[in-house]
Automatic annotation (TrEMBL):
Protein name from the UniProt record: Curli production assembly/transport component CsgG
Coiled-coil positions: none
Keywords for this protein: Signal
PROSITE patterns attached to this UniProt entry: PROKAR_LIPOPROTEIN
Source species of the chain: Asticcacaulis excentricus (strain ATCC 15261 / DSM 4724 / KCTC 12464 / NCIMB 9791 / VKM B-1370 / CB 48)
Record bears the keyword Nucleotide-binding: no
InterPro entries: Curli_assmbl/transp-comp_CsgG, Holdfast_HfaB
Length: 344
């Protein structure tokens, strides 16, 4: 009789397990359909986080420096950015290069935050093509081009392209993995195989990235400033788990959390610190004191912010400025600072 009861109990548990597995499979299959819905897609992408500014610990100082220079009429030389390449040689087998290939673009953004005047030298392909067309009298500046008859064409004027005074070049020269690490593994439980057991794992590791940049006088090619910086990056990993038998069933539950400081954001921080020192030298400022003095408390410049800097096309700075560009709710179709809804 007892044997029949045990067999019946096993069958019930087996049946419940099969039902649970079937329900889980059906739930997962409901997330992705092999037939496109009315909207024309198989699945709706998850996530609706807004676009935000991407500052580092040096962004505020760059904006402050640019604001200080403009307030005190400190003229910026014309700046250009050349190649800031990846010289680390670190490549993943499937994922490509470990370090960003956009360091030059980061430097341009840093210069914009500092209020520097910039001329384009990194990608001149469009200008060169239009210059070629202009030289052949194929480009017009009329509102509507007429391909059937000759019209006014753009002229090439002597001295029409602004030259640069200085340019920044260099590269990311170091990427060192695991320069130091530490960890702990703990397993706790009774000697009885059927008692509760627990395990805890923890890891901590440090790596670093470095760059070397040069500021070059464009006219003479004299290197007037050289900077080398490194930044350490920290990562951690924590896991915990419990294993137990309960009423004839096995329970194995584990959870964990890990994180690595963004490596490419560390590169941006390096470039912003180097740009800050370059521009502080060119502006001739004292140092960080200009941002700590209450007399110079003007971080809210209308056209300089954590997203960069710009030249306004119209007189609308009250509603469109550097501050509004940093607002994560602006233009988002489901967010609104005041009511939490509304399209824009």
């Amino acid at each position: 009789m007892a044997s029949d009861t045990k067999k019946s109990s096993r069958r019930v548990r087996r049946g419940l397990s099969l039902i649970a597995l079937a329900a889980g499979a059906m739930t997962l299959s409901a997330c992705v359909s092999p037939v496109a819905g009315p909207s024309g897609v198989y699945a709706k992408p998850i996530g609706n986080a807004p676009v935000t500014a991407n500052p580092t610990a040096y962004s505020d100082a760059l904006v402050c420096l640019g604001s200080y220079a403009r307030k005190h009429s400190l003229a910026s030389p014309r700046m250009a950015v050349g190649r800031i390449s990846d010289y680390t040689g670190k490549v993943e087998y499937e994922g490509g290069r470990k370090i960003t290939q956009g360091a030059s673009l980061m430097a341009m953004t840093a210069l914009a935050k500092s209020g520097a005047r910039q001329v384009e030298r990194f990608d001149t392909s469009v200008s060169e093509l239009e210059l070629k067309y202009t030289n052949n009298k194929l480009i017009t500046d009329n509102e509507v081009a007429n391909p059937t008859e000759a019209g006014e064409y753009r002229r090439i004027m002597a001295g029409q392209i602004a030259g640069s005074d200085f340019h920044i070049v260099g590269g990311i020269t170091e990427l060192n993995y695991n320069i130091r690490s530490s960890g702990i593994d703990a397993y706790v439980g009774d000697a009885d195989a059927r008692d509760t057991k627990g395990i805890v794992n923890g890891r901590l590791y440090v790596m670093n990235v470095a760059l070397d940049l040069r500021l070059v006088d464009t006219r003479t090619l004299e290197v007037v400033d050289v900077i080398s910086y490194q930044k350490q990056i920290i990562g951690r990993e924590i896991k915990a788990g419990v294993f137990d038998f309960f009423n004839g069933n096995i329970f194995d539950v584990s959870a964990g959390e890990g994180g690595l400081e963004p490596m490419q954001l560390a590169v941006r921080a390096l470039i912003e610190r180097a740009t800050l020192e370059f521009m502080a030298n060119l502006y001739g400022v004292q140092g960080p004191e200009i941002c700590l003095n209450p007399k110079d408390d003007f971080l809210n410049d209308a056209t300089l912010g954590k997203t960069g800097g710009y030249t306004p096309a119209y007189n609308n700075l009250e509603t469109n400025n550097a501050g509004t560009r940093e607002d994560p709710s602006r233009w988002h179709n489901t967010r609104n600072r005041n009511s939490g809804d509304g399209r824009y």
